[in-house]
Design brief:
Length: about 170
Amino acid sequence: MQQIKARKTDLHQDEAAKQDQDTSKTYEVQKTKEEWKKILTTSEYRILRGGGTELPYINKYYDNKKEGVYYCAACGQPLFTSKTKYHSGTGWPSFWAPIKPSAVEEKEDHSLFITRTEIVCSRCGSHIGHVFHDGPKPTGLRYCMNSTALDFFPMNLSKVNTDTLSVLTKKD
Ligand SMILES: [Zn+2]
């Protein structure tokens, strides 16, 4: 309760700070709204650029058990692999770790009554989901992602070095 009260008082300030941060942050892939709208579908745009969330269970990867790599659907950066994907029972694709720590960035999200940690792609700043602290070992984290924000490609992971996977250039 105390946390919520404190947050309400600071809300105005937080929002202002967040906006400043958003406009000053420059990503490797930087596009205008119009440019994003041209390369993304309506639902991709709503989630990736609008911070939206897709419906649970009615999405393409929540139950995908294939071996491979999940790329950012906006810029093609590799974000997750099937190695850290697990069945969370939430209806969204869930991972206990990203492909490497530098692939994602955390942001505070005040859009609901509780403060959540938003996950964005570190290359283009697009929203991909949220991270929670109720995941399995070894990290205890649950990266709850939107299928729409990801592009999956089947791959034999024992044959690729996931640290040096290149970016998919299809949408650059
Ligand atoms: Zn991206």
